[in-house]
Amino acid sequence: MSRSEPLLGYVAKVYPRFSETFVVNEIRAREAQGERIEVFSLRPPLDGRFHETLAEVRAPVAYLRRGGLRAVELWELLRSGAQNHPTLRRHLDDLLALEAEDAAQALELASLVEQRGIDHLHAHFGSVATSVARVAALLTGRTYSFTAHAKDIFHEDVDPQDLERKLAGAHHVVTVSDFNLRHLRSTFPSAARSVHRVYNGLDLEQFQLVPGPRRSQVVAVGRLVEKKGFDVLIDAIGLLADRGTPLPCVIAGEGALAEELQARSVHAGVDHLVRFVGPLPQRQVRALVAESAVLAAPCVVGSDGNADGLPTVLLEALALGTPCVSTRVTGIPEAVRHDETGLLVEPGDAEGLADALQLMIGDGALRERLATAGRRLAETEFDARAQARALRALLPDRGLLARRAEVA
User: Fold this and answer.
1) 49 pLDDT band (50/70/90 cuts)?
2) Residue 251's beta-bridge partner residues?
3) CB under 8 Å, gap of 24 or more: what pairs does 245-249 form?
4) Rounded Cα–Cα distance for residues 294 and 282 (Å)
5) 10: nearest Cα among 168, 130, 122, 93
Protein backbone atom coordinates (compact mmCIF):
# COMPACT_ATOMS: atom_id res chain seq x y z
CA MET A 1 0.00 0.00 0.00
CA SER A 2 1.25 3.46 -0.86
CA ARG A 3 1.87 5.87 1.99
CA SER A 4 0.27 8.52 -0.24
CA GLU A 5 -3.06 6.75 0.17
CA PRO A 6 -5.29 8.48 2.75
CA LEU A 7 -5.61 6.65 6.04
CA LEU A 8 -9.21 5.77 6.85
CA GLY A 9 -10.46 5.16 10.37
CA TYR A 10 -13.35 2.69 10.53
CA VAL A 11 -15.48 3.09 13.67
CA ALA A 12 -17.72 0.24 14.81
CA LYS A 13 -19.71 -0.39 17.95
CA VAL A 14 -18.35 -3.95 18.07
CA TYR A 15 -15.63 -5.32 15.84
CA PRO A 16 -15.57 -8.00 14.69
CA ARG A 17 -19.18 -9.03 15.14
CA PHE A 18 -20.13 -12.54 14.06
CA SER A 19 -23.38 -11.43 12.43
CA GLU A 20 -21.84 -8.49 10.53
CA THR A 21 -19.86 -10.18 7.79
CA PHE A 22 -20.59 -7.21 5.53
CA VAL A 23 -18.17 -5.01 7.49
CA VAL A 24 -15.31 -7.48 7.08
CA ASN A 25 -16.19 -7.98 3.39
CA GLU A 26 -16.09 -4.24 2.86
CA ILE A 27 -12.75 -3.70 4.57
CA ARG A 28 -11.17 -6.61 2.68
CA ALA A 29 -12.39 -5.24 -0.64
CA ARG A 30 -11.13 -1.73 0.10
CA GLU A 31 -7.75 -3.03 1.20
CA ALA A 32 -7.54 -5.11 -1.98
CA GLN A 33 -7.76 -1.92 -4.04
CA GLY A 34 -4.92 -0.34 -2.04
CA GLU A 35 -6.70 1.66 0.65
CA ARG A 36 -5.18 2.00 4.11
CA ILE A 37 -7.54 1.35 7.02
CA GLU A 38 -7.40 1.23 10.80
CA VAL A 39 -10.36 0.04 12.89
CA PHE A 40 -11.59 1.59 16.13
CA SER A 41 -14.09 -0.44 18.13
CA LEU A 42 -16.20 0.95 20.96
CA ARG A 43 -16.75 -2.49 22.47
CA PRO A 44 -14.76 -5.73 22.36
CA PRO A 45 -16.44 -8.81 20.85
CA LEU A 46 -17.88 -11.06 23.54
CA ASP A 47 -18.78 -14.35 21.84
CA GLY A 48 -15.27 -15.32 20.74
CA ARG A 49 -16.40 -16.73 17.36
CA PHE A 50 -14.96 -15.30 14.16
CA HIS A 51 -15.33 -16.00 10.46
CA GLU A 52 -12.23 -17.27 8.69
CA THR A 53 -12.10 -14.29 6.32
CA LEU A 54 -11.21 -12.07 9.27
CA ALA A 55 -7.66 -13.39 9.02
CA GLU A 56 -7.36 -11.71 5.60
CA VAL A 57 -7.96 -8.22 7.04
CA ARG A 58 -4.71 -6.29 7.48
CA ALA A 59 -6.18 -3.31 9.35
CA PRO A 60 -5.06 -3.02 12.98
CA VAL A 61 -7.79 -2.72 15.61
CA ALA A 62 -7.83 -0.36 18.60
CA TYR A 63 -10.40 -0.92 21.34
CA LEU A 64 -11.44 2.33 22.99
CA ARG A 65 -11.70 2.37 26.77
CA ARG A 66 -15.19 2.02 28.18
CA GLY A 67 -16.60 1.64 31.66
CA GLY A 68 -14.87 1.94 34.97
CA LEU A 69 -13.50 5.42 34.32
CA ARG A 70 -13.29 7.39 37.52
CA ALA A 71 -14.29 11.05 37.65
CA VAL A 72 -10.63 12.09 37.83
CA GLU A 73 -9.90 10.11 34.62
CA LEU A 74 -12.81 11.71 32.80
CA TRP A 75 -11.62 15.11 33.98
CA GLU A 76 -8.10 14.38 32.73
CA LEU A 77 -9.47 13.34 29.34
CA LEU A 78 -11.38 16.60 29.13
CA ARG A 79 -8.36 18.64 30.23
CA SER A 80 -6.01 17.01 27.73
CA GLY A 81 -8.68 17.29 25.06
CA ALA A 82 -8.92 21.03 25.62
CA GLN A 83 -5.16 21.29 25.33
CA ASN A 84 -4.82 19.12 22.22
CA HIS A 85 -7.94 20.20 20.36
CA PRO A 86 -8.38 23.98 20.22
CA THR A 87 -11.87 23.56 18.76
CA LEU A 88 -13.15 21.69 21.84
CA ARG A 89 -14.73 24.78 23.39
CA ARG A 90 -16.57 25.48 20.17
CA HIS A 91 -17.97 21.93 20.13
CA LEU A 92 -18.47 21.49 23.86
CA ASP A 93 -22.24 21.27 23.45
CA ASP A 94 -21.82 18.38 20.99
CA LEU A 95 -19.55 16.60 23.45
CA LEU A 96 -21.87 17.15 26.40
CA ALA A 97 -24.84 15.88 24.40
CA LEU A 98 -23.27 12.39 24.46
CA GLU A 99 -23.51 9.90 27.27
CA ALA A 100 -20.50 10.27 29.57
CA GLU A 101 -18.78 7.08 28.39
CA ASP A 102 -19.46 7.92 24.73
CA ALA A 103 -17.99 11.39 25.27
CA ALA A 104 -14.88 9.83 26.82
CA GLN A 105 -14.52 7.57 23.81
CA ALA A 106 -14.95 10.50 21.43
CA LEU A 107 -12.10 12.30 23.22
CA GLU A 108 -9.91 9.19 23.10
CA LEU A 109 -10.73 8.64 19.43
CA ALA A 110 -9.86 12.26 18.66
CA SER A 111 -6.44 11.79 20.27
CA LEU A 112 -5.85 8.57 18.31
CA VAL A 113 -6.91 10.29 15.08
CA GLU A 114 -4.19 12.89 15.62
CA GLN A 115 -1.57 10.37 16.75
CA ARG A 116 -2.21 7.91 13.93
CA GLY A 117 -2.67 10.50 11.20
CA ILE A 118 -6.20 9.39 10.34
CA ASP A 119 -7.53 11.44 7.43
CA HIS A 120 -11.20 10.48 7.37
CA LEU A 121 -13.54 8.59 9.72
CA HIS A 122 -16.22 6.18 8.55
CA ALA A 123 -18.72 4.55 10.91
CA HIS A 124 -21.09 1.65 10.40
CA PHE A 125 -24.66 2.27 11.58
CA GLY A 126 -25.91 5.78 12.29
CA SER A 127 -26.18 5.15 16.03
CA VAL A 128 -23.48 5.26 18.72
CA ALA A 129 -20.54 4.58 16.39
CA THR A 130 -21.48 7.60 14.30
CA SER A 131 -22.13 9.69 17.44
CA VAL A 132 -18.55 9.07 18.60
CA ALA A 133 -17.03 9.45 15.12
CA ARG A 134 -18.89 12.70 14.48
CA VAL A 135 -17.65 14.41 17.65
CA ALA A 136 -14.10 13.12 17.14
CA ALA A 137 -14.20 14.53 13.61
CA LEU A 138 -15.42 17.91 14.89
CA LEU A 139 -12.62 18.05 17.46
CA THR A 140 -9.90 17.20 14.95
CA GLY A 141 -11.15 18.99 11.86
CA ARG A 142 -11.53 15.72 9.96
CA THR A 143 -14.38 14.68 7.75
CA TYR A 144 -16.64 11.76 8.59
CA SER A 145 -19.14 9.54 6.86
CA PHE A 146 -21.30 6.61 7.87
CA THR A 147 -23.28 3.71 6.47
CA ALA A 148 -26.96 3.63 7.43
CA HIS A 149 -28.40 0.12 7.41
CA ALA A 150 -31.88 -0.47 8.87
CA LYS A 151 -32.19 -0.58 12.65
CA ASP A 152 -30.41 2.79 12.80
CA ILE A 153 -33.09 4.22 10.51
CA PHE A 154 -36.36 2.46 11.31
CA HIS A 155 -36.24 1.40 14.96
CA GLU A 156 -38.65 3.23 17.25
CA ASP A 157 -35.74 4.37 19.44
CA VAL A 158 -34.13 6.37 16.62
CA ASP A 159 -34.12 10.10 17.44
CA PRO A 160 -35.01 11.90 14.17
CA GLN A 161 -33.28 15.12 15.23
CA ASP A 162 -30.10 13.27 16.11
CA LEU A 163 -30.12 11.36 12.82
CA GLU A 164 -30.78 14.56 10.88
CA ARG A 165 -27.83 16.25 12.61
CA LYS A 166 -25.54 13.36 11.65
CA LEU A 167 -26.76 13.37 8.05
CA ALA A 168 -26.26 17.10 7.74
CA GLY A 169 -22.74 17.07 9.17
CA ALA A 170 -21.37 14.10 7.25
CA HIS A 171 -19.19 14.55 4.19
CA HIS A 172 -21.27 11.76 2.68
CA VAL A 173 -23.58 8.98 3.83
CA VAL A 174 -23.94 5.50 2.39
CA THR A 175 -27.06 3.40 2.61
CA VAL A 176 -27.60 -0.15 1.45
CA SER A 177 -30.78 0.02 -0.64
CA ASP A 178 -32.80 2.33 -2.84
CA PHE A 179 -35.67 1.89 -0.38
CA ASN A 180 -33.52 3.40 2.38
CA LEU A 181 -32.35 6.15 0.06
CA ARG A 182 -35.90 7.19 -0.78
CA HIS A 183 -36.90 7.07 2.87
CA LEU A 184 -34.01 9.24 4.05
CA ARG A 185 -34.41 11.78 1.27
CA SER A 186 -38.15 12.10 1.81
CA THR A 187 -37.84 12.27 5.62
CA PHE A 188 -34.82 14.61 5.71
CA PRO A 189 -34.95 16.45 2.36
CA SER A 190 -32.22 18.98 3.21
CA ALA A 191 -29.92 16.90 5.39
CA ALA A 192 -29.98 13.81 3.17
CA ARG A 193 -28.63 15.42 0.01
CA SER A 194 -25.30 13.66 0.47
CA VAL A 195 -26.79 10.17 0.87
CA HIS A 196 -25.79 7.61 -1.74
CA ARG A 197 -26.97 4.08 -2.29
CA VAL A 198 -24.10 1.58 -2.41
CA TYR A 199 -25.09 -2.06 -2.17
CA ASN A 200 -23.15 -4.34 0.15
CA GLY A 201 -20.92 -6.64 -1.86
CA LEU A 202 -19.61 -10.18 -1.81
CA ASP A 203 -16.30 -11.74 -2.74
CA LEU A 204 -17.74 -13.59 -5.72
CA GLU A 205 -14.68 -15.80 -5.98
CA GLN A 206 -15.66 -17.28 -2.62
CA PHE A 207 -19.33 -17.50 -3.62
CA GLN A 208 -19.26 -19.37 -6.90
CA LEU A 209 -22.35 -20.64 -8.69
CA VAL A 210 -22.91 -24.24 -7.56
CA PRO A 211 -24.54 -26.34 -10.31
CA GLY A 212 -26.12 -29.73 -9.95
CA PRO A 213 -28.88 -31.29 -7.84
CA ARG A 214 -29.73 -29.94 -4.38
CA ARG A 215 -31.21 -31.45 -1.29
CA SER A 216 -34.98 -31.11 -1.17
CA GLN A 217 -34.88 -28.85 1.87
CA VAL A 218 -35.33 -25.20 2.75
CA VAL A 219 -32.61 -23.35 4.62
CA ALA A 220 -32.90 -20.14 6.63
CA VAL A 221 -30.01 -18.21 8.13
CA GLY A 222 -30.04 -15.31 10.57
CA ARG A 223 -30.37 -14.21 14.15
CA LEU A 224 -33.37 -15.68 15.93
CA VAL A 225 -35.15 -12.37 16.41
CA GLU A 226 -38.57 -11.04 15.49
CA LYS A 227 -37.66 -9.24 12.27
CA LYS A 228 -36.38 -12.44 10.64
CA GLY A 229 -39.89 -13.93 10.61
CA PHE A 230 -38.80 -17.47 11.42
CA ASP A 231 -42.06 -18.03 13.31
CA VAL A 232 -43.86 -17.55 9.99
CA LEU A 233 -41.52 -20.07 8.35
CA ILE A 234 -42.29 -22.68 11.01
CA ASP A 235 -46.01 -22.10 10.49
CA ALA A 236 -45.53 -22.51 6.73
CA ILE A 237 -43.69 -25.80 7.25
CA GLY A 238 -46.65 -26.91 9.37
CA LEU A 239 -49.10 -25.97 6.60
CA LEU A 240 -47.08 -27.93 4.05
CA ALA A 241 -47.06 -30.97 6.35
CA ASP A 242 -50.85 -30.70 6.66
CA ARG A 243 -51.06 -30.69 2.86
CA GLY A 244 -49.08 -33.93 2.69
CA THR A 245 -45.92 -32.16 1.50
CA PRO A 246 -43.45 -32.49 4.37
CA LEU A 247 -40.45 -30.25 3.72
CA PRO A 248 -37.29 -30.48 5.82
CA CYS A 249 -36.09 -27.10 7.07
CA VAL A 250 -32.71 -26.12 8.55
CA ILE A 251 -32.46 -22.88 10.55
CA ALA A 252 -28.95 -21.59 11.31
CA GLY A 253 -28.46 -18.86 13.87
CA GLU A 254 -28.91 -17.93 17.50
CA GLY A 255 -30.87 -15.27 19.32
CA ALA A 256 -33.38 -14.32 21.96
CA LEU A 257 -36.23 -16.29 20.38
CA ALA A 258 -34.40 -19.62 20.17
CA GLU A 259 -36.45 -21.43 22.83
CA GLU A 260 -39.71 -19.86 21.67
CA LEU A 261 -39.13 -20.95 18.07
CA GLN A 262 -38.18 -24.47 19.07
CA ALA A 263 -41.32 -24.70 21.19
CA ARG A 264 -43.37 -23.41 18.25
CA SER A 265 -42.04 -26.18 16.03
CA VAL A 266 -43.04 -28.75 18.65
CA HIS A 267 -46.51 -27.23 19.02
CA ALA A 268 -46.96 -27.24 15.24
CA GLY A 269 -45.94 -30.90 15.13
CA VAL A 270 -42.98 -30.27 12.81
CA ASP A 271 -40.04 -30.59 15.21
CA HIS A 272 -39.03 -33.68 13.20
CA LEU A 273 -38.83 -31.47 10.09
CA VAL A 274 -37.34 -28.24 11.50
CA ARG A 275 -33.72 -28.54 12.61
CA PHE A 276 -31.98 -25.75 14.55
CA VAL A 277 -28.20 -25.94 14.04
CA GLY A 278 -27.12 -22.78 15.88
CA PRO A 279 -24.68 -20.17 14.58
CA LEU A 280 -22.26 -21.38 11.90
CA PRO A 281 -19.04 -19.94 10.48
CA GLN A 282 -19.30 -18.50 7.00
CA ARG A 283 -17.73 -21.55 5.31
CA GLN A 284 -20.40 -23.83 6.77
CA VAL A 285 -23.19 -21.38 5.97
CA ARG A 286 -21.96 -21.26 2.39
CA ALA A 287 -22.00 -25.07 2.15
CA LEU A 288 -25.45 -25.32 3.74
CA VAL A 289 -26.99 -22.75 1.40
CA ALA A 290 -25.27 -24.27 -1.64
CA GLU A 291 -26.65 -27.76 -0.95
CA SER A 292 -30.26 -26.63 -0.32
CA ALA A 293 -32.97 -26.36 -2.95
CA VAL A 294 -34.30 -23.05 -1.64
CA LEU A 295 -33.45 -20.35 0.89
CA ALA A 296 -36.25 -18.71 2.86
CA ALA A 297 -35.95 -15.21 4.32
CA PRO A 298 -39.48 -14.47 5.60
CA CYS A 299 -38.55 -11.06 7.01
CA VAL A 300 -41.14 -8.87 8.75
CA VAL A 301 -41.22 -5.40 10.27
CA GLY A 302 -40.83 -5.88 14.00
CA SER A 303 -43.22 -4.50 16.58
CA ASP A 304 -40.52 -1.94 17.46
CA GLY A 305 -40.20 -0.80 13.84
CA ASN A 306 -36.99 -2.75 13.34
CA ALA A 307 -36.54 -4.36 9.94
CA ASP A 308 -33.82 -5.89 7.81
CA GLY A 309 -32.23 -3.65 5.22
CA LEU A 310 -31.02 -6.18 2.69
CA PRO A 311 -29.86 -9.41 4.37
CA THR A 312 -26.41 -10.54 3.26
CA VAL A 313 -27.52 -14.17 3.15
CA LEU A 314 -29.90 -13.32 0.30
CA LEU A 315 -27.00 -11.94 -1.73
CA GLU A 316 -24.96 -15.04 -0.90
CA ALA A 317 -27.78 -17.31 -2.03
CA LEU A 318 -28.13 -15.44 -5.32
CA ALA A 319 -24.41 -15.82 -5.96
CA LEU A 320 -24.45 -19.55 -5.13
CA GLY A 321 -27.46 -20.19 -7.35
CA THR A 322 -29.86 -21.06 -4.53
CA PRO A 323 -33.31 -19.64 -5.34
CA CYS A 324 -34.86 -17.47 -2.65
CA VAL A 325 -38.31 -16.97 -1.22
CA SER A 326 -38.55 -13.74 0.73
CA THR A 327 -40.89 -10.85 1.51
CA ARG A 328 -41.62 -7.32 0.37
CA VAL A 329 -39.77 -5.61 3.22
CA THR A 330 -37.53 -2.55 2.77
CA GLY A 331 -34.83 -3.22 0.14
CA ILE A 332 -35.35 -6.97 -0.29
CA PRO A 333 -37.26 -6.68 -3.62
CA GLU A 334 -34.16 -5.00 -5.09
CA ALA A 335 -32.33 -8.34 -4.83
CA VAL A 336 -35.17 -10.89 -4.79
CA ARG A 337 -37.06 -9.72 -7.86
CA HIS A 338 -40.35 -11.55 -8.04
CA ASP A 339 -40.38 -14.34 -10.64
CA GLU A 340 -37.01 -13.10 -11.94
CA THR A 341 -34.43 -13.92 -9.26
CA GLY A 342 -36.76 -15.38 -6.63
CA LEU A 343 -40.28 -15.33 -5.28
CA LEU A 344 -41.81 -12.72 -2.97
CA VAL A 345 -44.73 -12.99 -0.58
CA GLU A 346 -46.26 -10.55 1.85
CA PRO A 347 -44.58 -10.36 5.28
CA GLY A 348 -46.34 -12.45 7.92
CA ASP A 349 -48.27 -14.50 5.34
CA ALA A 350 -47.60 -18.13 6.28
CA GLU A 351 -50.06 -19.43 3.68
CA GLY A 352 -48.40 -17.44 0.91
CA LEU A 353 -44.97 -18.56 2.08
CA ALA A 354 -46.09 -22.20 2.05
CA ASP A 355 -47.45 -21.78 -1.49
CA ALA A 356 -44.18 -20.24 -2.71
CA LEU A 357 -42.03 -22.93 -1.09
CA GLN A 358 -44.24 -25.69 -2.51
CA LEU A 359 -44.02 -24.17 -5.99
CA MET A 360 -40.25 -23.76 -5.76
CA ILE A 361 -39.57 -27.29 -4.48
CA GLY A 362 -41.83 -28.85 -7.11
CA ASP A 363 -40.56 -26.99 -10.18
CA GLY A 364 -36.95 -27.70 -11.12
CA ALA A 365 -37.12 -25.59 -14.27
CA LEU A 366 -38.28 -22.58 -12.22
CA ARG A 367 -35.42 -23.05 -9.76
CA GLU A 368 -32.89 -23.26 -12.58
CA ARG A 369 -34.21 -20.12 -14.26
CA LEU A 370 -34.21 -18.14 -11.02
CA ALA A 371 -30.74 -19.40 -10.09
CA THR A 372 -29.23 -18.30 -13.39
CA ALA A 373 -30.78 -14.84 -13.17
CA GLY A 374 -29.83 -14.54 -9.49
CA ARG A 375 -26.17 -15.23 -10.19
CA ARG A 376 -26.21 -12.69 -13.01
CA LEU A 377 -27.69 -10.07 -10.68
CA ALA A 378 -25.08 -10.82 -8.01
CA GLU A 379 -22.32 -10.26 -10.56
CA THR A 380 -23.75 -6.95 -11.78
CA GLU A 381 -24.98 -5.42 -8.52
CA PHE A 382 -23.40 -7.14 -5.49
CA ASP A 383 -19.71 -7.51 -6.32
CA ALA A 384 -17.51 -6.29 -3.44
CA ARG A 385 -14.99 -4.89 -5.91
CA ALA A 386 -17.62 -2.58 -7.39
CA GLN A 387 -18.73 -1.62 -3.87
CA ALA A 388 -15.15 -0.71 -2.92
CA ARG A 389 -14.74 1.44 -6.03
CA ALA A 390 -18.00 3.25 -5.30
CA LEU A 391 -16.99 3.93 -1.69
CA ARG A 392 -13.58 5.20 -2.73
CA ALA A 393 -15.16 7.60 -5.20
CA LEU A 394 -17.20 9.17 -2.40
CA LEU A 395 -14.19 10.15 -0.28
CA PRO A 396 -13.20 13.80 0.09
CA ASP A 397 -10.71 15.15 -2.43
CA ARG A 398 -8.06 12.46 -2.51
CA GLY A 399 -5.29 14.83 -3.46
CA LEU A 400 -5.83 16.89 -0.32
CA LEU A 401 -6.11 13.79 1.87
CA ALA A 402 -3.01 12.22 0.33
CA ARG A 403 -0.93 15.35 0.99
CA ARG A 404 -2.08 15.32 4.62
CA ALA A 405 -1.25 11.58 4.87
CA GLU A 406 2.28 12.21 3.53
CA VAL A 407 2.87 14.84 6.21
CA ALA A 408 1.50 12.64 9.03
Assistant:
1) confident
2) 220, 276
3) 245/358, 245/361, 246/273, 247/216, 247/217, 247/218, 247/273, 247/357, 247/358, 247/361, 248/215, 248/216, 248/217, 248/218, 248/273, 248/275, 249/217, 249/218, 249/219, 249/220, 249/273, 249/274, 249/275, 249/296
4) 18
5) 122
What confidence category does residue 219 fall into, taking pLDDT thresholds of 50, 70 and 90? very high
- The torsion angles phi and psi of 265, rounded to 5 degrees, stand at -65, -35
Query: What size, in residues, is the chain?
Result: 408
13 within 8 A of 42, measured Cβ to Cβ: yes
With a threshold of 0.85, does the pTM exceed it? yes
Catalogue all structural domains in the chain, each as residue range(s) with its CATH number: 7-201+383-407 (3.40.50.2000), 215-381 (3.40.50.2000)
Cβ–Cβ under 8 Å, residues 292 and 214? yes
Cβ burial 32-68 (10 Å sphere, 16+ → b, else e): eeebbbbbbbbbeeeeeeebebeeebebeeeebeeee
The reported pLDDT for the residue numbered 405 is 43
**Amino acid occupying residue 295:** L
What's the CA gap between 371 and 322, in Å, rounded?
A: 6
Instruction: Transcribe 242-296 into DSSP letters.
Output: HTT----EEEE---TTHHHHHHHHHHTT-TTTEEEEE---HHHHHHHHHHEEEEE
Q: What is the spatial distance between Cα 158 and Cα 127, in angstroms, rounded to a whole number?
A: 8
Minimal CA–CA distance to 102: which of 24, 148, 162?
Answer: 162
pLDDT at 83 over 80: no
Backbone angles phi, psi at 406, to 5 degrees: -65, -30
Distance of CA 169 to the CA centre of its chain: 22
Amino acid at 78: L
Task: Give the mean pLDDT of 363-382.
Answer: 97
pLDDT in tens, 10-25: 999 999 998 899 999 9
Flag the least confident range among 4-13, 90-99, 174-183, 248-257: 90-99
CB 28 within 8 Å of CB 53: yes
Please state whether beta strands 274-278 and 292-297 pair in parallel, antiparallel, or not at all (unpaired): unpaired
The model's pLDDT over 130-173, given as tens digits with 9 standing for 90+, comes to 999 999 999 999 999 999 999 999 999 999 999 999 999 999 99
Cβ-based neighbours of 300, under 8 Å, separated by 6 or more: 226, 227, 228, 229, 232, 307, 327, 329, 347, 348
